[in-house]
Design a protein that fits this description.
With 190 residues, the protein is an alpha/beta fold. It has helices at residues 27-37, 56-63, 81-88, 99-106, 113-120, 133-137, 139-150, 176-188, and strands at residues 14-19, 41-46, 91-97, 124-129, 154-155, 159-162, 168-172. It has one domain: 3-Layer(aba) Sandwich (Rossmann fold). The chain is 38% helix and 19% strand.
Length: 190
């Protein structure tokens, strides 16, 4: 039986998958695979707190590229790491996005590889919040999200689900298929 070939939706697209500290980080491993199956070239950037949840080695193996966690890493060609990464992106995907990374982005922080690269990039930005329901509902978090939306950042809203604290609430990361659909939608817009 001949397997029908399905056209890839993200050919020749470069995505920076920015990973922040959230228990939902483990789901980004499968998301990375999904992005690559759709034809995307994916480079991973990790905050210091993200490295506490899943090893960078996992993302290196899945992406086929080095994982960037240190903004002061030296490249062999002496380029500036955060701007080099920023310039190659068609999309910056922040998944999972903790309350901390959302607050730092909303306030223009550039103190690690993720925030520095996002600030230097002119690519579209898609943010996927994942956090405790009280943190997500907090007025400061809502204000930070509104601020980022007002400057053109796109969001995949969290869903109601089981949270690591043991209760059910809004803040659970959406399924990877919903994230993938949003990636394709954002990249298809002019």
């Amino acid at each position: 039986m001949v397997k029908k070939r399905i056209a890839k939706r993200l050919p020749k697209k470069t995505i920076l998958l920015c990973l922040s500290g959230s228990i939902a980080l483990y789901k980004s491993c499968d998301l990375l695979r999904d992005l690559k199956e759709e034809g995307a070239d994916v480079f991973c950037l990790m905050t210091k707190s993200a490295q506490q949840f899943v090893s960078s080695l996992t993302f290196h193996a899945l992406s086929g590229h080095p994982v960037y966690a240190d903004p002061f890493s030296e490249l062999t060609d002496w380029s500036v790491l955060h701007t080099t990464l920023a310039d190659k992106a068609d999309l910056v995907l922040i998944c999972p996005a903790s309350a901390n990374i959302i607050a730092r982005l909303a306030n223009g922080m550039a103190d690690d590889i993720v925030t520095s690269t996002v600030l230097a990039s002119r690519a579209k930005v898609l943010v996927v919040p994942a956090m405790n329901d009280n943190m997500f509902a907090h007025p400061v978090t809502k204000e930070n999200i509104a601020k980022l939306k007002s400057i053109g950042y796109h969001f995949v809203e969290p869903v109601k689900g089981n949270l690591v604290c043991g209760r059910e609430g809004m803040g659970h990361i959406p399924e990877n298929q919903a994230i993938l659909e949003s990636v394709c939608s954002v990249l298809s817009r002019k």
